[in-house]
Amino acid sequence: MLVLDSFEYFAPTTVRQALALAEKYRGRSRFLAGGQSLLPMMKLGLASPNVLIDLNRIKGLEYIKEAGKWIRIGAMTRHNAIASSKVLAEKAPIMVEAANQIGDPQVRNMGTIGGSLAHADPAGDWGSVLIALRGLVQVTGRRGSKLVMIDKFFVNSFTPRLRSGELITEVRIPTPPRRSGGAYVKLERRAGDFAIAAAAVQLTLDNNDRIRSVGIGLTSLGPTNLRAVKAEKILTGQLPTAEVVEEAAKAAAAESKPVTDPLRGSQDYKRAMAAVLTKRAIMMAVSRARGGG
Ligand code: FAD
């Protein structure tokens, strides 16, 4: 039988109130966003906060907007809102592609980008996509806000770089320049499941068709979402020939750190898939940067 411990519930209407509550109940409270990870954990007894601080009544945390050289996404923006965003479809379609592959319709309707990052599941899709896009996470505490590079955000599995009581308020990505393309390629046991492995690639080509810049993020292939640093180096400044792409994909597999699990397969299988998925994602990203589909 599942037993839910009792807890106090608050529904603040401003970020300020939420932060004040978090400070008052420091160490005993959890923020509640879409509830798609927290509530299952509470039901399973893996989390038992004394106080829940529901973020859903706070206005102004759900938005997607272009501002200068950035696209800014409010922390409470649902996966589904990202899936149907015109701004993202035009400027950073990899976000739309990834959102459509998260969970099932209910998870996408309720789950938020901020909640997903705060949960810091190495099988979460957003971390890898933001690594590929070189995104930033805005973290707000009682003393103000700071921007944390996505590379610094994941400390370990289920351990984000958030101090007790700190709130993710926004995610920012640099608006990709022209001749950019991205792809999120995910292998799952069945639609709606977490990734066995996945690769996010975002790149920009120069006028000579060389890769000017590239970001590669890997999902379910290590203790956190990972950047494939060596693979990025192999590609940068090169023409995306079959040989170069193959070499980069192999490097991504070599720098991945998957673990065997009874549900989704062995370490060797996942590493082999890392190469296949990275290669596919690079080729798709190149084709899209050239204006293809
Ligand atoms: P919640 O569950 O409300 O919170 C999660 C954690 O983050 C809690 O510790 C909470 O206190 C904290 N938190 C929430 N918001 C903030 C904030 N703004 N600042 C600081 N801390 C915060 N995810 C994938 O990426 N890919 C999948 O394929 C996928 N499949 C799923 C399938 C199922 C059946 C389910 C139930 C979930 C799946 N998920 C998947 C997870 C889903 O994306 C969740 O929405 C996400 O992990 C958590 O977001 P949430 O808004 O629901 O957060």
Topology:
Layout: E1 8-10, H1 15-24, E2 29-32, H2 38-43, E3 51-54, E4 64-67, E5 70-74, H3 79-83, H4 86-91, H5 93-99, H6 105-110, H7 113-119, H8 125-133, E6 136-141, E7 144-149, H9 150-153, E8 154-156, E9 159-160, E10 167-174, E11 180-188, E12 195-205, E13 211-219, E14 226-227, H10 229-235, H11 242-255, H12 267-289
Parallel strand pairs: 1-3, 2-3
Antiparallel strand pairs: 4-5, 5-10, 6-7, 6-10, 8-9, 11-12, 12-13, 13-14
The protein binds flavin-adenine dinucleotide.
Residues 30-38, 40, 75, 102-103, 107, 110-112, 114-116, 118-119, 124-126, 162, 167-168, 194 line the site of flavin-adenine dinucleotide.
Can you walk me through this structure?
This protein starts with 7 loop residues before the first strand and ends with a helix. It folds into three domains: 47 residues, 2-Layer Sandwich (Uridine Diphospho-n-acetylenolpyruvylglucosamine Reductase, domain 2); 111 residues, 2-Layer Sandwich (Uridine Diphospho-n-acetylenolpyruvylglucosamine Reductase, domain 3), CATH 3.30.465; 110 residues, CO dehydrogenase flavoprotein, C-terminal domain (Enolase-like, domain 1). Helices cover 35% and strands 26% of the residues. By secondary structure, the chain is of the alpha+beta class. It binds flavin-adenine dinucleotide. The site of flavin-adenine dinucleotide (FAD) has 29 residues, from strand 2, helix 2, helix 6, helix 7 and helix 8.
